[in-house]
Amino acid sequence: MRTCPNGHPVPDNAVFCTTCGARMPAASPGYGQPAQGQPYMHADQAPPNQGYQQAPQYQQPPYQQAPPYQQPPYGPPQGGMPLTGFRGEVRSPGMVILLSIITCGIYSLIWIYSVSKEMNNVLGYEATKPQYTFYGLLCGIFTLILWSQVDDALVEIDRRRGIISSKKFLTWLLLTIFLGVGGFVMMYDVQSRLNALYEGRY
Fold first, then answer.
1. By three-state DSSP, how is residue 30 classified?
2. Which of 17, 114, 157, 158 is in Cβ range 3.0-4.6 Å of 165 for a Cys bridge?
């Protein structure tokens, strides 16, 4: 029989006093007796090494930065982009020139406006500005710009077809300045190459 800190008798195995509720002090183990929760060992046996082992720290995965934003390129698509498959009207180059002469150039305006739109549909983007046809009536520089755009569009069409061709705008311009026939040469050349495309020829 033990007594609590306040002098009340309590059973040997009690943790709290049954009279006042005071906590009973832990009884020290006797010589050679194992403490509570400890394995039995002799007095001359050294306690096992129970050094503090730190738990492995959490390894945070390295921060992976998102790849930088790349702005898509503008202008005509690059690489081996195919043609759209659009086919325009097949015209006789000689008839185009003849009608342009008979109508005093009115048909030439209709023609170049039409082929400019056709080439845009063939390539799938606005390679030419067909409205420059009408701007050229006020300022001739727009007509020359449209000629240059048509020339570039034809070169791009040939490149996508696997044909190597050169630009001819300078030739058209020089023939216009010195001989006055550059427009007719341009009509014949452009319509002939478009007819070859529309009919599946080289």
1. coil
2. 158
